[in-house]
Specification:
By secondary structure, this protein is an alpha/beta fold. It folds into 2 domains: 3-209, Metallo-dependent phosphatases (Purple Acid Phosphatase, chain A, domain 2), CATH 3.60.21; 234-470, HIT-like (HIT family, subunit A, 2-Layer Sandwich), CATH 3.30.428.10. It has helices at 15-29, 128-131, 140-149, 212-232, 305-324, 358-372, 390-397, 429-438, 453-467, and strands at residues 3-8, 34-37, 57-60, 77-81, 84-87, 91-95, 101-105, 120-122, 153-156, 162-166, 170-171, 177-184, 193-198, 260-263, 267-271, 289-293, 328-336, 345-351, 382-384, 401-407, 413-419. Helix 6 (358-372) crosses helix 8 (429-438). The radius of gyration is 26 Å and the shape is elongated. It starts with a strand and ends in a 7-residue tail after the last helix. Residues 236-358 form the Cwf19-like C-terminal domain. InterPro entries: Cwf19-like, Cwf19-like_C_dom-1, Cwf19-like_C_dom-2. Pfam families: CwfJ_C_1, CwfJ_C_2. This is CWF19-like protein DRN1.
């Protein structure tokens, strides 16, 4: 016989209201084997609820601590009110009346996992391998935990606001099947409740996706192999490519015009082929794009009309994301060299919470480049916050540099730039840095990330709709 469970992500400012709704659901659709509250249920500074709870209800600590009214010295499971139980950090396992096991993990400390099957796992953060699907933030330690526990259901919220996301079930080599569900917070406009039935005998779904956690492990191993190949690659003499052979020249008969979002007088905007990021429920297109001069040129001078239009495109894109997707921040990058075939600037949006990760990712990749790959020229990035800084302009005016531009908002920019000489460079270096920021090691190489033409057309149309109001060429 199946048992029912109710999962909720309450707002800590409206806990009484949520518990009233929980009671109503219990009366109408219950009884529930257990009701589980996710996220920051009773954080520091909050008082205990006054509503009398119907049915066994459990919660644990979120990211903002727990209420001073909870006496954690009582026991591992603290009854803060009738039918309302706090699972003491760092982890606790509850066995329900019907024998189902619920594991709460609120802190990742060294603890010995029990050798029992877990039906329901509760964490605050997402696994990093699943978070990267939506370009959001996760925790590798959650991946490790899920791989060891292999729960039948895994519930999380990801951050204070939460997000509704239900991943299709995936299997483990040992035969278990896991379902991952994240909920938004009550009041956020996103789905914040989830009810389901579970029985002791598990039915294997007919449709299973690749296991994202084991796939990520394989991708990391493949990246190590790929990086080893960098050091073995001999520097090749740059090819001379004419405009009729250049895929960035709009006059080329083979130009993939179905990917062009906007065309100006001196430059144009296109979606990227083999994007680093992918479309998701937060953004209906990948967001990875390229700004390209119409003229077939290796470099672009600072005072040229081309540079001015490229900067105008950048400002328009930043405004579009700032006003429509304020939690996504753009990062632009470019490699300018006299030996380039056709100058271009790439960009993609990242979660605002990931901007702070960029310096560490950059430093890591620089260290690997400078110490491990001896044939590559040494990179030495400098940080600037003023676009008119004479030292920054001097490097840009040399026309030989690699630069990242992090856009915190419409006005604030952070520039990381390194001069380049004639020695070989890893042209995939910027993408490697961003892949590390986003924890997407399996998407470093664009040619392994190509999408079907229909998907490219869909991404382009969605980008056009997103950008139309801000497109100065219209």
């Amino acid at each position: 016989m199946a048992s029912k469970f109710l999962i909720l992500n309450p707002s800590p400012d409206a806990l009484d209201k949520v518990l009233e709704k929980s009671n109503l659901q219990y009366t109408k659709n219950g009884p529930f084997e257990a009701t589980i509250l996710l996220g920051d249920v009773l954080p520091q500074g909050k008082k205990l609820p006054t509503v009398k709870v119907i049915g066994s209800t459990y919660f644990t600590e979120g990211k903002n601590g727990f209420s001073e009214d909870i006496n954690i010295e009582d026991s591992n499971l603290v009854d803060v009110a009738d039918n309302l139980t706090f699972a003491k950090p760092p982890f606790r396992i509850i066995k329900t009346v019907s024998g189902f096991t619920i594991m709460f993990v609120s802190k990742f400390e060294d603890f010995e996992l029990p050798k029992i099957d877990i039906d329901i796992l509760i964490t605050y953060e997402w696994p990093q391998s699943i978070a990267q699907m939506l370009t959001t933030f996760g925790n590798d330690k959650v991946d490790d935990l899920v791989a060891k526990v292999k729960p039948r259901y895994h519930f999380a919220v990801g951050n204070e606001a939460g997000m509704f996301f239900e991943l299709e079930p995936f299997a483990w080599p040992t035969g278990q099947v896991t379902r991952f569900i994240s909920l938004g917070q009550e009041g956020s406009g996103d789905k914040w409740f989830y009810a389901f039935s579970i029985s002791k005998v598990e039915d294997i779904p007919t449709k299973l996706i690749d296991n994202p956690i084991t796939s990520k492990k394989r991708a990391r191993e493949e990246e190590i192999i790929e990086e080893k190949s960098i050091s073995k690659t001999e520097a090749k003499k740059p090819k001379v490519v004419s405009p009729d052979q250049c895929f960035f020249c709009v006059g080329n008969a083979n130009t993939e015009t179905h990917m062009i979002v906007s065309i100006g007088s001196s430059a144009y905007l296109t979606i990227a082929k083999g994007p680093l990021t992918r479309s998701n429920k937060n953004l209906s297109f990948s967001g990875h794009g390229i700004l390209i001069p119409i003229e077939h040129t290796a470099t672009v001078s600072q005072d040229s009309p081309v540079r001015k239009e490229l900067l105008r495109y950048q400002d328009s894109l930043v405004t579009a994301f700032d006003e429509q997707k304020p939690n996504l921040k753009l990062i632009f990058w470019e490699i300018s060299r006299d030996t380039n075939i056709h100058h271009h600037i790439q960009f993609l949006p990242v979660q605002d919470t990931l901007l702070g990760k960029f310096p560490n990712s950059l430093n890591l990749r620089v260290k690997l480049n400078n110490e491990k790959f001896k044939k590559n020229q040494k990179l030495n990035f400098q940080k600037f916050t003023d676009s008119s800084d004479p030292a920054l302009l001097k490097i840009i005016e040399s026309n030989n540099y690699m630069m990242f531009t992090l856009c915190e908002n419409k006005t604030n920019r952070i520039y990381y730039i390194t001069p380049l000489n004639e020695n070989p460079i890893d042209i995939q270096f910027p993408r490697r840095v961003l892949a590390h920021v986003l924890n997407l090691p399996d998407r470093v190489h664009w040619d392994k990330c190509q999408q079907p033409k229909l998907k490219e057309m869909s991404d382009c149309d969605n980008f056009k709709s997103f950008f139309q109001k801000y497109d100065f060429t219209v």
